[in-house]
Amino acid sequence: MNKNTTKPTELGSLIEILHITDPTLPIGGFSHSNGLETYVQQNLVKNASTTQDFVESMLKNNYKYNDGLAVKLAFEFTEQNNLDEILKLDNECQALKAPLEVREASLKLGTRLIKIYAALLDNPFLNEINNLIEEKKMQGHYSVVYGIITALLKINKEKATCAFLYNAAVAMVTNAVKLVPLGQTDGQQIIYNVQGLIEALTLEIMEVERDLHGVCNTALDIKCMQHEHLYSRLYMS
Amino acid sequence: MEKYSLKTGLREQTILKDVYFTPPFNLVEVRENKKNPLLEMMVMSSSPGILNDDFYDINIEVIDGSSLNLQTQSYQRIFISEKGTNQHMNISVGDSSYFSHVPHPVVPHKGARYTAKSTIHLKSTSTLLWGEILTCGRKYMAEEEMFQFKKHHAITEIYQENVLIFKDNLYIVPEKIDLRQFGQYEEYTHQGSLFFITPETDVKERMDNISNRLSTEEGISYGISKLLDNAYVLRVLGNEGEQLYKLFTEIRIAEDKLINQKVSIN
Asked: Mutating which of B194, B225, B233 best tests the A interface, going by the most A Cβ atoms within 10 A?
């Protein structure tokens, strides 16, 4: 069964974005809390208002300089067909993620995402990336793989980055609803409240200097490292 | 540009082979037990700190089979500057070599703008212990000078056989980023990071020992995680520069001792 391929249209592109950021995409996004579980167990994130503070700070201080920026960079390097820079960026992501579980989470998501899309697209560039990952010549971090695929799908760069941030926000809120716990309405209110921030950050990411990639979030790193030793854990990170 | 550089040499023990410095620097050997194989050097400075337009250029070469510990004399103060002050540090650690460096905490004064780039090249058989501590400023001054600096941007890159294995990108602009937010400094004012790698050794036991030691300490938050089977990263938040410096120095001295013992046996 093949996809009916017509000329790329606005609607077609929208469907591609919805597909790659769909929470039901089986890459295991909801097995990882990226430190949130530690914050909840230490009673620091404990209600709707602290959850919103957490989500906002992660978007502004973490995603903007880390995975969000890596998406944008990987997208641009793919457009330029610059495999060397992609490999460098992917390795840089590996070197920047000091907490073991966060590094592994990013790799799990990335390698599952590329398996799905390598099969769907059968694109020579993506196949090459997939081979490099299989041969362990590349790590395959989620943000990098996402940037590559969205560039190959010819999704608009701002929209691809924006959707990535939105997906990250939804994942954080979904986890918080389960962990804190919060009511479903509270969760949706937070997602609604951060929409403006996501839009603004998307535009800011387009302008972030290259040497700000990977700015350290010290307390977050510590909480992610502490997660390895939590007494009971629902999440892998 | 203010410079210092040093290169180790090797006889029965590590010796100082080449050394070069311009004012305000001076490098002196501080090895107490002259029989120890580990060369211990201290960098001294006649300047109260990094002043406007200063550009520190530092080069260190630890040759194959040698071992070096580089110490500092006092806290590194960074003074107010419009254009900004800089430090570049290039380090190469050879085969079966050892380098340890836990400098005193950095104290950025009100109005300071500082950029640092440290690049460390290792071989697969090198051992490295590298620590960095940043304070919020002169916290105990009458006016409580906390987070009054303009910008602190310190990038550390550690390469093993020319592959980047660890990168730390510390970018603190207090005017732009509220450090009390989740994920930043939260309720703390000081932060430190320590990186350690040693060949063909699982660092699990070391990590457990450090965790146990730090768990007895009050007023800090810490995490330690494996970067590779033979490498860990330790991050600590606290409220006292001296406390973090003592803890990191303790870890450093323990590794220095192992080097002295190991090389003696050979």
From this structure: B225
Closest CA to A65 of A221, A207, A160: A207
The pLDDT of residue A163 is above 80? yes
Per-residue pLDDT tens over the stretch A29-51: 889 999 999 999 999 999 999 99
d(CA A96, CA B165): 8
pLDDT digits (tens, 9 = 90+) for A66-80: 999 999 999 999 999
Which contiguous run of DSSP H or E holds residue B145?
Answer: none
Partners of B93 in beta bridges: B62, B122
CB contact under 8 A, B225 and A100: yes
Does the pLDDT value for residue B168 go beyond 90?
yes
Taking an 8 Å cut-off on Cβ atoms, the answer to whether B227 and A222 are in contact is no
Q: Confidence class of residue A2 from pLDDT cuts 50, 70 and 90? A: low
Computed over its alpha carbons, how large is the radius of gyration of chain B?
A: 18
ipTM for the predicted complex comes to: 0.96
Q: How many residues does chain A have?
A: 237
CATH architecture, range A32-225: Orthogonal Bundle (1.10)
Cβ–Cβ < 8 Å for A40, A173 = no
Q: State the nearest Cα–Cα gap between B184 and chain A, in angstroms.
A: 5
Distance CA A31, CA B229 (A): 24
User: What's the rounded Cα separation, in Å, for the pair B90 and B5?
Assistant: 9
Note whether B96 and B126 are within 8 A (CB): yes
